Amino acid sequence: MGEIYEKMDCMIGEIRDLLINNKHAVDYMKMEEILVSRWEKMNITMHCLGFALNPFFHDSKYLNAKAPGGVPRRAPNQDREVVAKVLKAFDRIGEDENEKAELRKQLAKFQNKQGMFGTTFARIDATTMSPISWWSTYGSETPELAEIAIRVLSQPISSSSAERVWSTYSYIHNIKRNRLNTKRADKLVFIHSNIRLLSRFTTSYKEGPCKKWDIDPESTYFDDSTVRLEDLRWDD
To answer: pTM score, two decimals?
Structure first.
């Protein structure tokens, strides 16, 4: 979630670089108009919040490098659209005015690299660690903001998770079992999904012929992530 906003901007620049010496160069402006129009429809508050809370995009070396298309990079706090949507997100997340003000205060501390955020280690690790690991390590001075950052940056940007739930739902509520009410069907899907998560803590899931049976063997996302499923368990 923390990368989609930047990648979309870079994609438009990369297309420009490809077409600049191409026979289709005259069509670039029209293509850019279509892409920007499409992105404006797709862009949501969560994209901007993830971009603003990704420490990599605040790194000075990254900001000093030219973006694709030769456009100077801007820090998230210098992008008017990003700032507006971050404040909108805080307005929805905060339960009262005091909490909203505290989130803004902590965001300013993060953006200005104050306290622990300004240490040499924090600056170096911002470019080498995953954003989730970075916030888990250096977010102790801004606990409320760190919690939001970890939750937002953990969000997938594809609909595969939702489609997986729909697939599970189709096994539970079908033509032969169509008298189940919505509430009961939702509970059964919830139980099924959580039993699947709990199975990942078993030895048979970690070793043997059925190792990681529900994960793409070519994907290393779960191996590289420092977020453990243990953190996702509900309190008793």
So the answer is: 0.64
